[in-house]
Design a protein that fits this description.
With about 280 residues, the chain is α/β, with parallel strands linked by helices. The protein has helices at about 5-20, 45-60, 65-70, 90-100, 115-125, 135-150, 165-185, 195-200, 200-210, 220-225, 250, 255-265, 265-270, and strands at about 35-40, 105-110, 125-135, 190. The protein contains 13 helices and four strands.
Length: about 280
């Protein structure tokens, strides 16, 4: 290790120690800069949500997480496309905390469950988390179809092992459990995919307010216009869904499959007011 690298790591460690040693900030106030976590149920418009969040932040002076990934050598922590952090483990969270300590605000993506460390980051106002969810029956259908397309094209992705209904049901059951954990946290912004699709202006403005951004500012309005669903093709950059239609499972799945999902997801459907 050369002297420059050693000095840099020493600086990082001292900054991290000083930051962790700080008392909890007053309620309702955030320390800046901050990590923005865009987290969501798979196949719930999470790519759309991430890109909307990221572009809103960039328009108001935040840094691009893709550059942060390169500059701070976080290729093992953040994925290349949407800077997905994966599991919210302590080493991964501390790794992305370092560029924040060095004065950077940026947006990362996740599908994982909240950990105790992630919750501590949120409580200390080091990280703001915005969570998007969807009717799990539609999300499950989308994941199953996406996996089938991947297999047909000889590719492997996060859904290619969902080879039958039961595998897809088990997969989505895990993410319903994760969804409940995010929805239990009052410090997290909760966005219903169906509302973002149908009441886009209202929900995009709500997201902007959560990010301490004026939705009426010209940069905000331009970004929100660019991500308006009815003005972009569903396969367009930033939307990341093929169909995105509400209730499509009712025409694509058998009555027996629908009954099975209604039983397995019953508590969640009732909690989130999704009609059976």
């Amino acid at each position: 290790m050369n002297s420059s690298t050693f000095a840099q790591r020493t600086l990082y460690k001292q900054a991290l120690y000083d930051h962790v040693s700080q008392p909890y900030p007053p309620e309702g106030r955030y320390n800046q800069p901050v990590i923005i976590l865009s987290v969501g149920m798979p196949r719930a418009g999470s790519g759309w949500y991430y890109n909307l969040t990221n572009e809103l932040m960039l328009a108001h002076g935040a840094q691009d997480a893709r550059r942060i990934r390169q500059s701070y050598h976080l290729q093992r922590v953040l994925t290349a496309v949407n800077c997905n952090i994966g599991a919210l483990t302590t080493p991964r969270l501390l790794a992305v905390l370092i560029p924040s300590l060095m004065g950077n605000t940026f947006v990362v993506k996740a599908h994982a469950a909240p950990t105790q460390m992630a919750k501590a980051f949120i409580r200390r106002k080091w990280m703001r988390a915005a969570y998007i969810y969807r009717d799990p029956r539609d999300a499950m259908l989308s994941a199953f179809e996406n996996g089938a397309r991947a297999r047909e094209n000889g590719r492997i992705n996060a859904f290619s092992n969902l080879v039958d209904f039961e595998a897809a049901l088990d997969f989505m059951t895990q993410y319903v459990q994760i969804s409940n954990l995010w929805l239990d946290d009052p410090n997290v912004l909760h966005t219903r995919y169906e509302d973002l699709l149908q009441e886009y202006d209202q929900e995009a403005s709500r997201l902007a307010h959560f990010l301490d951004i004026d939705p009426q500012a010209e940069p905000s309005m331009q970004v929100m216009a660019n991500f308006r669903p009815e003005e972009r093709p569903t396969a367009g950059k930033g939307l990341h869904f093929s169909h995105g239609k509400i209730g499509r499972f009712r025409t694509k799945m058998t009555s027996e499959q629908q009954d099975r999902m209604a039983v397995v997801f019953s508590a969640y459907l009732e909690r989130m007011n999704y009609p059976v």
